[in-house]
Amino acid sequence: MTALEAVKVGAGDVVPNHRLGGTVRVLLSPGTARTTAGFMALLELEPGERVSEHYHPYTDEHVYVCDGRLLVTVNGAEQTVGPRESLLIRRGARHRYENRGDRPVTAVLFLGPLAPSPEMGHVETAEPPGDGPPPSVDAKPGPAMDAAPSAAGTRERA
């Protein structure tokens, strides 16, 4: 099997991003796996954490909750997505995520198709709680060493 036939990327292989809130790890993307149809990310939210409102002008967002209960607000309407449930957020819809529960939330996100360029793929409509650039689909895998503080305290290496 060649690198173009199958690419394995672990959560510990990518640098976590905290700009939007919580922890976002871009797993399979043009930068990590030469994807062309979209990208996959892991979202982790501790109790009380949230991802600030944003939208994707070119991309649908598919959300699958693995653990916990994720409160998703889409164009002002709230709904809860529980374990083993999924939600489709259509391109252009403003959305945000929040963990109002007492246990962590883990969700897998798939966004596709890709925007014409990475900077066109994500529009923030609220002030993000973190610093730095938004998660990048062009980032290459590397050591996931991160100690940036978040709303839940200090983040440790994956």
Protein described:
- The chain is mostly beta strands.
- Helices cover 3% and strands 38% of the residues.
- It is built from one helix and twelve strands.
- The chain has one helix at residues 30-33, and strands at 23-28, 39-45, 50-55, 60-67, 70-74, 77-81, 85-89, 95-98, 105-112, 123-124, 149-150, 153-154.
- The strands form three sheets. A five-stranded antiparallel sheet has the order 1-2-9-4-7. A five-stranded antiparallel sheet has the order 6-5-8-3-10, with no helix packed on it.
- Strand 11 (149-150) and strand 12 form a beta hairpin.
- The longest helix has 4 residues, at 30-33.
- The protein is globular, with a radius of gyration of 15 Å.
- 28% of the residues are buried.
- Mean pLDDT is 89; it is low at 145-158.
Using DSSP, what is the number of strands? 12
Count the helices. How many?
1
**Residue runs with pLDDT of under 50 for 5 or more positions:** 145-158
Outline: globular
Structural class: mainly beta
